[in-house]
Amino acid sequence: MSDSKLKVIVIGSGIAGLAAASVLREHHVVTVYERGDRQFATGGQGMCVFPNGVNILLSRGFDPYHAGGVPCKGYRSFNKSGELVEDFPIDFRGRYGADMLMMKRSDLRDELMRTATASASELGVNGDPARVVFNTSVVDLDPDASLITLSDGSIVEGDVVIVADGIHSGLRPKITLDEQQRPKKTGLTLFRISVSAEDVRKALGQLPEWWNPEGDDSRLNILQADDGTHRILAHYPLKHHEYRNFSCLLPMPKDREDVVESWYADGDKKEMLQNFEDFNQQIHSVLSVATEVKFHDLEDMEPLFRWNKGRALLVGDAAHTMTPLQGQGANMAIEDADSLRLLLPGMTHEEIAFTLQRIDSVRRPRATQVLMDTRQQAKDVTVEDRMAKMDYNCGYRGIHEALKGLQ
Ligand SMILES: Cc1cc2nc3c(=O)[nH]c(=O)nc-3n(C[C@H](O)[C@H](O)[C@H](O)COP(=O)(O)OP(=O)(O)OC[C@H]3O[C@@H](n4cnc5c(N)ncnc54)[C@H](O)[C@@H]3O)c2cc1C
Predict the structure, then answer these.
(1) CA of 92 to the centre of ligand 1 (A)
(2) Does domain 7-72+104-182+302-406 have CATH number 3.50.50.60?
(3) What is the architecture of the domain spanning 184-300?
(4) Among 22, 35, 133, 393, which residue has the most ligand 1 atoms within 8 Å of its CB, making it the best to mutate?
(5) Residue ranges of the FAD-binding domain (predicted)?
(6) Is the CB of residue 53 less than 8 Å from the CB of residue 112?
(7) Which among 200, 260, 184, 270 has a CA at the least distance from the CA of 235?
(8) Domain assignments of the chain as residue spans, ordered by start
(9) Using one digit for the tens of pLDDT, what is the confidence trace for 326-347?
């Protein structure tokens, strides 16, 4: 095997594409094609990166402080009035070797853009920065020849193509050869907002006592209606406690069955406030300060029969769409990215195809298990059950350990 770098094409600069580029840049020449522009809307709402993701990102020069990540110290559950039901501390770092970070989705993407494209010396890693080509859609893919067609009609050839074009992947059928398999609505709808401390101070005079960066404000808090309406409100701090995420979950209204889903769709603040008006009044008044409300019907997708064809591989939501009920979607994308370490300089095209098959054989069963556990999470589960799932999710130690498990 020679030491010549592979020419890698990555389609999509979301979390999966940029995490993949951050890993692959170490040994290869990486070009990412993104149909949006540099400021492409990624949403400023919150998300959680668990130790299985954080452990991998730290090895790529990822800086949790730079990304505004707030380390989570456990969960608290409340009834809808805000009375504490259970406080469940978790020492993520002690138990799984890294923090669980609560951060803005846009900050995570910005930091991944840095780990993919900053100089090796800035990050303390090896390899040349990946190149990101914005405003360029990939309109076709030939996985066997590792060829892509761009929106201007030009054709680009790589040694390998990583397909990270997201939940509504247009290129998925080129690999699965199945036009029918796509994400479906799960019957749950989510309002999501992130509110700044500054806006709350301006509107309400001061922050509520539970939003106290100096105090014990490092839990993921969950309020449950417990009145048969299946409404849940989760809130947690973001960006050094300067922001707060609120996710308000409820059964999907009947009239939304035919609405085409988008992560970036705006929601109606009045509707959100009405749906949660019987929840804790202090929380309700913070919700009323929101300047931007996002509204999604949650979707997931039956496990695919293949993620790989020829020299192309699906990763991220294109490969495994799941709801955010376990907060593992992006973490699975980061694990997918880590598996690309198996692609080595100088590999022949046959070796690349074989390596992608190996990755598929390890990653697909794990992502399927996490999808099934996430579906289970929508039902009543015990604390012990939740912790067992958490151990499974957060205990992942990378592709080399996973391959050992197969032997
Ligand atoms: C409400 C909500 C909350 C969530 N919370 C969490 C959480 O707490 N923790 C967690 O781990 N996960 C969470 N997730 C899931 C997580 O956000 C996704 O799993 C993750 O963002 C998927 O990343 P991706 O790169 O696969 O897709 P995306 O981020 O959608 O990126 C796809 C990219 O591909 C580009 N693209 C698409 N088609 C083309 C094309 N033809 N050519 C070029 N570019 C193209 C798009 O423009 C986009 O930039 C949440 C999801 C939702 C909806």
Answers:
(1) 25
(2) yes
(3) 2-Layer Sandwich (3.30)
(4) 35
(5) 6-372
(6) no
(7) 200
(8) 7-72+104-182+302-406, 184-300
(9) 999 999 999 999 999 999 999 9
